[in-house]
Design brief:
The protein is an all-alpha fold. It has 28 helices and no strands. The protein has helices at residues 5-16, 20-29, 31-34, 44-57, 62-69, 74-77, 82-98, 102-118, 122-138, 142-156, 161-177, 181-195, 201-217, 221-238, 243-273, 282-285, 291-315, 319-335, 339-355, 359-379, 384-406, 411-425, 433-446, 454-470, 472-480, 489-507, 512-519, 523-533. The longest helix is centred in the middle third of the chain and has 31 residues, at 243-273. It is elongated.
Length: 538
C-alpha cells in the first residue's frame, strides 16, 4: 500500500514551520508503515528525501533511512520518474554527509546541481547547496562553503524564512572562522529571533554552541562555559544522546582544560617566587578558593565531559567525534605528565582521521604528537640516543601537520601548525632559534588582530623563549652589521618594537597611554606589541 498522502503533507508542513516535536511524533507513530516503503510506491522518492530532511533536523533514526535507501540500488533508481530519481539521489548524498564522507557528498551534490540547471527546482537546489556547503565546511574549505550557503539562502528567500535562518547559523559559524566575530554574532542573533518561536532545538542549541566558540576565542572562558552548558540543555530537549550534544561537551571540556592550565601557571608562578599562602584554616585551604583544588576540579570535570561525549559518539558510530574526544583526552593527560597515555590516544586519533581522510583532525593529531615528542625531549626521557629520535619525530609530525593545515582554509589551524614547528625548532635538541623566530613570525601573521586565548598565549610563550635564549644583544649586534636574514624592513621594525616598547612600558609605570605619548604611536599598537610580547593577555 502506498504511504498515506496525508502523512506526507503533514510532515512537509511541520518541516517548513519547524514544528519538530510534531514531525518526530508523526514519524514514530507511522514507523511500521514507513518500514514497508518500496521503490514502486508512488510516494517513494518524495518520502525518502523528506525522511533525510527530518533525520537532519532531529529525528534520531538514521539506520532507518540508510536501510530504506538500500532498497533503491542504481538499476532501480534508473526506472524511477525524474522527480523521484532526483530526490532519492539527494537522500543518498545526505547519507554520505551524515556518515562523514564529505567527498562523496560533494560529488553527488555537484552532479545534482548540474541537473538542476536544466531542470530547475528552487527547493531542491537550495537544499543541495545547503548540504554541499556543510560538506565543504567539514573539509575546511570555507570559501566554497560560504558560496554554497549563500546560494542556498538566496534560493530559500522569504518564502521559507525558517530554513533561511538555519542556513544563516552555518554562515555565521564560517564568518567566525574568518575572524568576523561581530558579523557572526549578528547573524546568530537574527537566526535566533526567527527560530525562537519554534521547537527546533538542534538549531537553537547550535546557536548557543557557536556563541560558546566565539567567547572561547575571545578568552572569555567563563562565558564560553555558560553558552556550552545552555547548548547541552537545549540539545537534550530533542535527544539526550544527540551527536551535537557530544560536540558541545567536547568544547566545554576544552575550555575547562584551558582554565586548568591557567591555574597551573598560577601555582607554578607562586612556587617559583617563593610566596606562600596566607595562614588559613584547614577547611579553607582545601576549599574552592585553593588554586590546586580548583585545578583538580576543572581537570576532573573535563574528563567527565569527554567520557559522556565518548559514549554518545560511540552510540552513533561517529568516528570523527571519537577522534576529537581522543585528542582532548590526550592533551589532558599530557598536561599532567602522563606522556604514554597521551601518545596512545593521539596515535589512535590520527588513525581514525586518516581512515576518513579528515585533514583537520589529522593535522590536530599530528600537532599533538609533535607536542608529545617535544615533551620527551624536554623531560629527557629514555637514553641519550632516544633524545634525537624524539626530536626528529617531533619535527616530522610538525612538518606533516603544517602540510595538512595548509590544505585547509582554517587559519588558526595553520597558526597552530606553525607554532608546533617553532616550538620544535626551539626545543633543547635543535635550539634552532632563527627557524623558531621565522615560524613565530609566520604564526603571528595568521592570528587576526584582537584575538586572544590559548593560541596567543602559546605564541607569546614561544617568542619569550626565543628572546631569552638568543639574547637581545646578539640580535642588535647582527642588525648593526647588516645581518638581517631574509626579513623585510617591516619585520625588523616589528622585532625592534617588541624589544623597546615593553621596556618603555615598565619605565612608564605600565601605563599604555604614557608609552603611546612618549613614542608618538597609537595606544592600539602599544597594546598589540605588549600582547605579542607576553606582557599582557589581551
Amino acid at each position: 500500500m502506498p504511504l498515506e498522502q496525508r502523512l506526507i503533507r503533514k510532515l512537509e508542513a511541520a518541516l517548513r514551520l519547524r514544528r519538530i516535536n510534531e514531525g518526530v511524533a508523526l514519524l514514530a507513530a507511522a514507523r511500521d508503515e514507513i518500514e514497508k516503503l518500496e521503490p514502486d510506491d508512488p510516494s517513494a522518492g518524495r518520502f525518502m528525501l523528506l525522511l533525510a530532511q527530518w533525520t537532519d533536523v532531529g529525528f534520531s533514526d538514521f539506520p532507518l533511512l540508510r536501510a530504506l535507501l538500500e532498497r533503491f540500488p542504481p538499476e532501480c533508481r534508473n526506472r524511477l520518474p525524474m522527480g523521484d530519481y532526483l530526490r532519492v539521489r539527494m537522500a543518498g548524498a545526505f547519507i554520505d554527509l551524515a556518515r562523514e564522507d564529505p567527498d562523496s557528498a560533494i560529488d553527488a551534490l555537484d552532479s545534482l546541481l548540474k541537473i538542476f540547471q536544466d531542470i530547475p527546482d528552487s527547493e531542491l537546489e537550495s537544499l543541495a547547496h545547503f548540504w554541499k556547503g556543510r560538506a565543504h565546511r567539514k573539509k575546511g574549505e570555507y570559501e566554497a562553503a560560504l558560496k554554497h550557503l549563500g546560494n542556498a539562502r538566496k534560493l530559500a528567500g522569504s518564502d521559507d524564512k525558517f530554513f533561511a535562518a538555519v542556513i544563516e547559523i552555518q554562515e555565521s559559524w564560517l564568518l567566525f572562522q574568518k575572524g568576523l566575530s561581530k558579523e557572526a554574532e549578528q547573524g546568530l542573533n537574527r537566526a535566533e529571533s526567527i527560530l525562537s518561536s519554534t521547537d527546533h532545538y538542534v538549531a537553537l542549541a547550535n546557536i548557543e554552541s557557536a556563541r560558546g566558540r566565539i567567547m572561547r576565542r575571545a578568552g572569555e572562558y567563563g562565558k564560553a562555559l555558560q553558552h556550552f552548558a545552555k547548548a547541552v540543555q537545549i540539545y537534550a530537549k530533542r535527544d539526550p544522546s544527540h551527536a551535537n550534544l557530544a560536540r558541545a561537551l567536547v568544547n566545554a571540556a576544552y575550555v575547562r582544560r584551558l582554565l586548568a592550565l591557567q591555574l597551573h601557571k598560577q601555582i607554578d608562578a607562586q612556587a617559583r617566587s617563593g610566596r606562600t599562602r596566607e595562614k588559613t584554616s584547614p577547611r579553607s585551604s582545601n576549599g574552592a578558593g585553593n588554586p590546586l583544588v580548583r585545578y583538580q576540579k576543572f581537570w576532573q570535570e573535563a574528563v567527565q565531559d569527554l567520557s559522556k561525549a565518548r559514549e554518545i559518539y560511540a552510540s552513533h558510530a561517529n568516528s570523527d567525534g571519537l577522534g576529537k574526544v581522543l585528542v582532548s583526552l590526550a592533551y589532558l593527560h599530557l598536561d599532567r605528565g602522563d606522556i604514554e597515555n597521551a601518545a596512545g590516544e593521539a596515535g589512535e586519533a590520527y588513525s581514525i582521521a586518516a581512515e576518513h581522510r579528515d585533514r583537520i583532525l589529522m593535522a590536530r593529531a599530528r600537532i599533538l604528537q609533535s607536542e608529545i615528542e617535544n615533551a620527551h625531549v624536554e623531560e629527557q626521557t629514555g637514553e641519550d640516543t632516544d633524545l634525537g629520535a624524539h626530536a626528529n619525530r617531533a619535527r616530522q609530525f610538525s612538518e606533516e601537520a603544517q602540510t595538512l593545515a595548509q590544505g585547509t582554509q582554517n587559519r588558526r589551524l595553520q597558526a597552530e601548525a606553525c607554532l608546533a614547528r617553532g616550538v620544535t625548532a626551539a626545543n633543547d635538541f635543535f635550539q634552532d632559534w632563527e627557524s623558531a623566530r621565522r615560524f613565530a613570525t609566520e604564526a603571528t601573521g595568521l592570528i587576526r588582530p584582537g584575538e586572544s586565548g590559548h593560541l596567543v598565549e602559546d605564541l607569546v610563550s614561544l617568542k619569550s623563549r626565543i628572546v631569552r635564549a638568543s639574547g637581545i644583544d646578539d640580535m642588535l649586534r647582527s642588525w648593526s652589521e647588516g645581518i638581517v636574514g631574509d626579513k623585510t624592513f617591516q619585520q625588523l621594525a616589528e622585532d625592534f618594537a617588541e624589544i623597546v616598547i615593553p621596556k618603555v612600558w615598565m619605565r612608564e609605570d605600565r601605563k599604555i597611554s604614557r608609552v603611546a605619548a612618549a613614542l608618538s604611536i597609537s595606544p592600539k599598537k602599544v597594546r598589540r606589541i605588549l600582547r605579542n610580547s607576553g606582557y599582557i593577555v589581551a
